[in-house]
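Annex B. Sample input.
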Amino acid sequence: MKSTGVMRGTGVAAVLLLGAVLMAACGGSNDASGGNGASNQTGITDPAVASGNTSLDSSASSTDAAGAEASASGAPEASASDAESSGSAGTAEPAVASPESAGDSGQSQPQQAVEGAGQNPDTSVVANPDSAAVLINKQFGLPEDYEPADLVYPDVPFTFSEKIEKRMMRKEAAAALEDMFAAAKKDGIYLAGVSGYRSYERQKTIFENYVKKDGEEKARTYSAYPGYSEHETGLAIDVSGSDGKCAAEDCFGGTPEAEWIAEHAPEYGYIVRYPEGKEDITGYKYEPWHIRYVGKEIAADIAKRNITLEEYYDAVPVSK
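Annex B, continued. Sample output.
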């Protein structure tokens, strides 16, 4: 009887041992999630979540959301790299042409911008009347109501003492004129202003008086229609010697003052606007006394190439 009990006890133990082995081989508790990555009922966290490796799920969610937003707005869906490269707004920047596309030199020929037809046939109104480099001639005119907003009185001698309209110039041009007159004085050349800014109405009166005197055809060789005169820009001025002799007259040409201006004016941003031998291009006879401020860079380029402002803008020939 004792031996039988021992055998029974041994058999039970063997059965229990075999069951434990089988359970271990099957992966343990039946409460485990079985590899779906979620937390189980025992509070054990899935290794992928614990390590933060959720990129696939979150990436898919972000893509779905982005796609839905793009569809709603009618815009094409963009990748994350596209949005990052185009800035915080997530939109691609427009392509910008490189300087090389303008030509071998990297620079394109400047053009005078216009905004509509002018008062006279075959003329245009400039779109940038406040620009120091604006081209005003028989083809390109100013708006009829244009008046510079920064007119000042340059601190230079004039051939008259009154503080009147024609003594004024735009601020930038006036400062450059002061520097030029001071430099001329150091070289023993004493300059004086003759006529600076003119309003539309003043130019109208002047032109009509010249027409009465010489007829319109001749008047147009040395005077401009109102709205087409550089004096109306506040950037041009007629100059002479301090004694006023030959002021705005042909005899000013060849004087020490005229020669100094022709040589040194570009250093201060001025050009002799109507040079000798360029009448067919500018539309006006030679006027060594009429200088125009365009800025140092453009003035230097025009002087170096011995061209006019029309040629600089490739705006030739002008209408007669």
